[in-house]
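Deliverable D4.2, example record:
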Amino acid sequence: MKREQLTEKILDIKREKNWTWKYITDEIGGMSPVLVVGALLGQMKLVKPLAEKAAKLFGLSEVEQRMLNEVPYRGAPMPPTDPLIYRFYEMVMVNGPAWKALIEEEFGDGIMSAIDFNIEMEREPNPRGDRVRMVMSGKFLPYKYYGNEQGIPEYGYKEA
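Output generated by the structure prediction step:
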């Protein structure tokens, strides 16, 4: 079995049992619902205790349980074709240069981690139509200036 086949099996069971992602993530627990759903969709891994809970919930075999604990091959072809995912891509294409400029001005020469990272999503009621509220928080990782001479900063933190 390939990882994509396991994802399809999980989605089939979810449909058959009429489960919501909320129900599934509440049953598995242990970490952010975004990470649990991401793992069940094949983009993240579940640590062993959570892989065991997921396997019990979905009635998976030991091999399938171990597969949930493997580090997956992540990502998808670019640009994405799904309209909702494409809108995130569009946000980065349109706003990315401004985000980059503002982050560098505030923190220095570096990046925001997508590994040491948190994301929260919630429904925000609005009389003109509910909104999706997403809050992202990633650790700032400065570039290392290797081969630097004495008096030259080692990392790209904002200079005073």
